[in-house]
Each structure stands twice: as structure tokens, then as C-alpha cells.
Hints:
GO cellular component, one term: plasma membrane
Strand content: 25-35%
Structural class: alpha/beta
GO molecular function, one term: ATP binding
InterPro entries: AAA+_ATPase, ABC_AA/LPS_Transport, ABC_transporter-like_ATP-bd, ABC_transporter-like_CS, P-loop_NTPase
Shape: globular
Helix content: 25-40%
Radius of gyration: 19 Å
Number of helices: 9
Largest sheet: 6 strands, mixed
Keywords: ATP-binding, Nucleotide-binding, Transport
Order of helices and strands: EEEHEEHEEHHHEHEHEHEEH
Protein name: ATP-binding cassette domain-containing protein
Amino acid sequence: xxxxxxxxxxxxxxxxxxxxxxxxxxxxxxxxxxxxxxxxxxxxxxxxxxxxxxxxxxxxxxxxxxxxxxxxxxxxxxxxxxxxxxxxxxxxxxxxxxxxxxxxxxxxxxxxxxxxxxxxxxxxxxxxxxxxxxxxxxxxxxxxxxxxxxxxxxxxxxxxxxxxxxxxxxxxxxxxxxxxxxxxxxxxxxxxxxxxxxxxxxxxxxxxxxxxxxxxxxxxxxxxxxxxxxxxxxxxxxxxxxxx
Length: 244
């Protein structure tokens, strides 16, 4: 279980402090799937990076299975059982995909094992297993390899930052199937940042983050009607704007 208590994250801004996250408190139970959504720039990725140790909170606490991990660095949190897929995955010139997967798994993987992981995220495995993780790969290819690195090792909690960004519809369908499988097995908790309706509908809980605060959080049945209402309001406003 992951639990946060009153997380506050601030950054230096023109001689002062700008608050990016303002007293964020929530929990994700074992085997549960939380989808975080909301407007761009509202603090979703900041929250994800705080959970995995890239951002350091000014105050507040983070607990994993009731262990205080607030002061853990990113490596210590990974060893504690938190996996993370970046919205913009890093590239490593000179490193083969197979080596990256082995590092992510924490053990030397065979070529068939690497190929299976790549196939699960919609890549033609034999074409990619020996490719370098560099600028020759497209954004969508990098995103799928990044997701494969998270799935290469079993975690207590996996955090995915907009995993659907930059991938084609066929690969997106395979990604949905993978999330459904993880969710069904209940072996790992999932936090997924997404705007995609199909991913949001899979959630046990939905959190809406905007302006650095939790605007609304609850079960799918509680929050989806609210989201649909907001969407209809925006669509209506867009139509009205087009009339003038």
C-alpha cells in the first residue's frame, strides 16, 4: 500500500517559492489501480516524480507498506518496490535494448525473455532486441521499451506517466490488455496518469489534480459522471466559441 500525507512541493521562482503540490494526501491499496487525470500543467507529473524520488517534498510524508520512504532516494525506492515509466523516456546511446531490459530486471535476461517482454508492449521483438536505445528510435518506440523495462521486474507499485502518449492504436490496445492483466492478478498496485477514457474506466479510484491540489477523488462510479459533465461543458463552450 502507498500512502501520502500532506505532501507539499515548492520550487524557486523569481526570488520566491512557487507551490507545485499543495498538501496532497491519498492512498492506493494493494492490488488497486489509481488513475490520475486533470488539465496539463496541473501537477500530475510533479506528483509522480515526487513519489519515485526525483522531486523532494518540502513537507509531508510518503509511506510504502507503512514504511516511511520520504527520505529515500530514487534507487532506494526502486529497491523498495516502486517502478516508474517516464512520460519522455531517457535515451542511452551505445546501450542495446536487451541490456537495458536486463538492468531493469536486476538479472541477466536471455534473448527469448527479452523478446517476450518486447512483444508484450507491441514491438516486433527480433527487430528491436539488439537495437541501441538512442535517437534512431521514435518517441513511440521509446515509450514502449520504457514500459517493458517497468514490466521486466515485479514491483509493489508501478507508476506510469501517460503511457499512451506517442503510441499507435494497435500498441495502445496491447497496453490496455497488459494493464488489465496486472490489475486482474492483483500482485502490484498501479498509478497511471492518463487522459484516455479507456484507461480511466479501468480504475478502482480516479483522482483529478489541478493547480497542485486534489480537486476530486473517489471511485470510478463517483468521479466518472463528474468528468463526463466537465467534458460536455468544454465541448459546449468550444461550439459556442465557433459561432462568434
